[in-house]
Amino acid sequence: MRILIVSQFFHPEMGAPAARFGDLGRAFVQAGDEVTVLTTFPNFPQGRIYPDAHQRLMQTETIDGISVLRTPILALGGHTPARKATLYATFAASALLRGLPLRHKPDIIIGTTPPPTVGYTSWLLAQRYRVPHVLDVRDIWPEAVVAAGRVKAGPAVQALEGLNRIVLQGSAAVTTVSEGKKTRLEELGARPGTVHVLSNGADLARFDRESRETRVEARAWLGENGVPLDKKLVIYAGVFNPPQGLDLVLDIAKQRQAAGDSRLHFCLVGDGSLRQHLLDRVRNEGLQNVSVIGPVDRKFVPGLYHAAWATLVILRPRKDNHTVPSKIYESMASARPVVLSADGEVATIAKTADCGSVSAAGDAPGLQAGLDALLADDARADAQGRNGRTYVELNNDRAAIAARFRAVLLNAVGQGRAP
User: Which of 198, 197, 140, 199 is nearest to 167 (CA)?
Assistant: First the structure.
């Protein structure tokens, strides 16, 4: 197959979308497919083009056998709704223009969302080439951002919801990452039988290789950034944005420091809109047991997790209960116990896997109790870390997910359902 993937986020950016289709794209290439990713110049999560990237009208490169077409956007930086809307709208427009004169007609087109504007572009390109369209949905916008209070409901939101319904109903297949999202997408208008749950996961072969290759360098990097390597490290690696609720981690660290418990050191590795806020809190509150560092290339995350005593996965309270942070799978793949603070489907996964401590989102006493339970029984903590690894091997290896995803694509191409 010739597969065109439209994604606003891609390597070297951090986060779930870049990881999801980096891994899946490699797997499709290994299966013999010709894969092209239509994306923009790296700018996530700060909304500014990376210093070593230079925008131009178009750029073509090859990454792991994937042909990557980059098209420009208006990246103003900052995290206001207006600036984010500008970022999303300009990518949708420039990607559409870049995608219209492709050298080779694709057999199928995938649009991965959010933002939903990517789905509009990929759907229009599928109409242009008269090929099947697959909509990949990791989070359901705009309702998720409205529920979180980041955007107010109104005519613009209603217009987006109307466009989303058109794309859902016009797609040969819809893929999503959890059962709860599947149910909601069917309620929002996806045709019966077209929605497939293809969870996020961990590319275990790649994860293990990168862990071996980077663990020495990652440990040295932690030391160079002032992390006390003689402590038990609780490592969070990801985005520093409001939905993660990372203030709770600093609250926990402050309480433990006040109690004189110096066994743990919390490492927050990454970048995002709350980075300066977190740094200010660490400095102003004199938190000696917290390091806010990074970002790092994704390939170093397995090496960082190897240095961890436990990994941290956290979300603030949400109105939906079907969000599953993608980092849960690499956290479990590390065979380190997971400290989870979240509700809903991800909590069910962690409890089923018995991979560490589970507390409700925003529950500081519950999170403290979970840490204390892990500290109290090293053998049990190690066993829970191994449980997590086994769970991912059985259920969330990206190679198996890619094979199922490819079967969905082959079925859509075989049926020939095009706009």
Answer: 140
